[in-house]
Amino acid sequence: MALIFDIETIADLSPANRGAVEALAAGREMSPDHYGALCPPLARVVCIAWFDSASNQLGAAFDARLLGTPAPASVEIVTADDAALGCRLDACGDEAQLLESFAARLETHVSGSEPQVVTFNVRGFDLPVLVHRSLRCGVSRGRSLLLKLLAENRYRPMLHIDLMDTLTFFGATSRWPLAAYAIGYGLPSPKGEMDGSQVGAAVAGGKIVDVARYCAGDVWATAEVYRKVREVDGWLPGKT
Fold it and tell me: Which CATH number fits the domain that encloses residue 102?
């Protein structure tokens, strides 16, 4: 059974480090906020969403310190057949608690029967962020598992399938965003009301619930793309 996940980040900026980050960002002709949100050690995790295929449950956890108004217990996203799919929301006290909560979920999944972790470009961004931010926040739980997912042989994965590798034939073809594959396979684009460039502004405006909904939409799109790919015999590792 598969656990599919995605994260959203903003720059971890403070009066003490802003000047130093600005200098780093200038070297890449980026704003400090943009640079920080994309640089794993500086990318503060504000939301993690997941889909568990065993329980058919979609959920998202977020840093409640960023909440502008009381959060609902759940939100809804629209599926390919225009149905409304519920997503449970979990409010965490801070980034450390958010990382701890997801680490516990990941460990539970991996300890189950025939576990599979499925992602989209998580090896290139999300996993390094989770490792570095766990160090930053002093969270040890799950760190060795995250490193295992990162270090696994991407050509013969036993546990972690990163669809970016699969869909580009391990880099033989160009890399395209998740939305391109979703649209190409006849699925809704997960970038309808928000995209990654708008996460920082949404968080600053107290709209972390909207960010959680967007993150959950990306996870569901990844699950749907994975379902499509599984229909092709011999494409996924271990599938005959």
Answer: 3.30.420.10
- Residue 184 pLDDT > 80, yes or no? yes
User: Is position 236 within any domain?
Assistant: no
Report the chain's terminal Cα–Cα distance, integer Å: 17
Count of domains forming the chain: 1
- Distance, in Å, from the CA atom of 117 to the CA atom of 110, rounded to the nearest integer, reads 8
The residue with tokens 């909440």 is 67
Average pLDDT, the chain: 91
> Beta-carbon neighbour count of residue 63 at 10 Å?
24
Half-sphere exposure of 130 (CA within 13 A, CB side): 30
Residue at 204 is within a domain: yes
Burial status of residue 210 (CB atoms within 10 A of its CB: 0-12, 13-18, 19 or more): middle
Asked if the structure places residue 239 within a domain, the reply is: no
In a domain, 64, yes or no: yes
Provide the 10 A C-beta neighbour count for residue 201: 12
Q: What are the two backbone dihedrals, phi and then psi, of residue 125, each rounded to the nearest 5 degrees?
A: -140, -65
State pLDDT tens for residues 18-60. 999 999 999 899 999 999 999 999 999 999 999 999 888 999 9
The two beta strands, 116-119 and 2-11, are parallel
The percentage of residues in the chain with a pLDDT greater than 70, rounded to a whole number, is: 98
Write out the residue range of the structural domain in which residue 38 sits.
Answer: 2-230
Calpha distance 33→20 (Å, rounded) = 12
